[in-house]
Amino acid sequence: MRFDLSGCGAGLDESAAGLLELGPRAESLGYDGLWINEEHFGQGSRTCLSPIPLATALAMRTHTIRIGFSVLVLPLFEPIRLAEEIATLDVLSEGRVDLGVSRGNTSRYFEAWGLSYEDRSAAFSSCFDKLIRCWTEPKIEVGSRIESIEPKCIQRPHPPIYFATYREEGAAWAAEQGLSLFQGSQQSADSLRRCNRAFRDAGGDAGNVPVGRFVVVGETDQVALQAAWPAAEKLTEGYRRSGEQLRRRISTEEDLETERWLREVAIVGSPETVAARIAALHDDLGFGSLQLVTGFLGHLPQTEVVRTLELFAKEVKPRLQSMLRETEEQSVVTMQRSPEAHQSGRRG
To answer: Are 232 and 262 in contact (CB under 8 A)?
Structure first.
């Protein structure tokens, strides 16, 4: 399983300096990827830089960790320029880019761009199709000319693409297109299950799916809960006030009660508790990577974010890997015994 960090600055969202320190720190702690959100206008509690320049800066300060986008809203981009910029980042990072994309769920972005929110699906399809053609075809039609869009990506035919959606039909579409599904930290367990089921039923491989979760790790359950509660209270209050979670079927009103949200949506506790919660979620969904959203959208103090990063890397990850190995070994034993039991039954 991969262990990645996600957020405006992959979690360290308090300052620009903190963002640039994140890459080498995360790489040295053994994290596998950094995923950067696309956000616009004032975000209040956190610093959100333009994602592609930030990703480039992080790529130049690291050597092995992958750099992802969680996610880019394709209808807001001109596809040729986006193809050039992502391919350039893939070249500069020596093939470490992961591309998360979506149709977009924030209507005020479309209004600001002078685009129709209702037409976002068609706009997404147009941009997506041209983006793929820019990377995979030697030359494409550009106005009255035929041109080669350069550079081409190091990863062929292009970086892995993840499609973010909260709807079952979107999850099925991702599987049909051969894309990976991207599941966000805001989704309730029920929302995750519905999308995951639709993705698998349409032929998708759940083992490639990243799942985001808000995570806080402390020396004990009580310490972690005390650190997380003020941030969780602000976060759930904002979700309840906006109503977006309910409209998108991401959560129910009950899911957004702070205490229940901390217990069932976020993953908060001691290293033992956090490892057990993630193992149980993995048994349920079978996802391929966990994206830690440690900054709680800028509401969690950076001292707590850093403590979580270090405790997770040093204490949670080894426990979790051991749990997953034991589960895998038990599954192998069960599969080996089943044919024997079957044959014994036939002889009897």
So the answer is: yes
**Largest alpha-carbon pair distance within the chain?**
77
pLDDT over 70 percentage in the chain: 96
Residue of 69, 72, 286, 68 lying closest to 196 (CA atoms): 286
pLDDT value at residue 346: 46
Taking the C-alpha atoms of residue 13 and residue 41, their distance in angstroms, rounded to an integer, is: 15
How big is the CA angle at 223 (ends 222 and 228), to the nearest 5 degrees?
95
Distances (CA, A) of 65 to 4, 157, 160, 179: 9, 20, 15, 21
**What pLDDT shows up at residue 338?**
67
Residue 144 one-letter amino acid: S
What CATH code is assigned to 2-315?
A: 3.20.20.30
Between the alpha carbon of residue 126 and those of residues 17, 98, 120, 157, 208, the distances in Å are 37, 21, 10, 19, 25
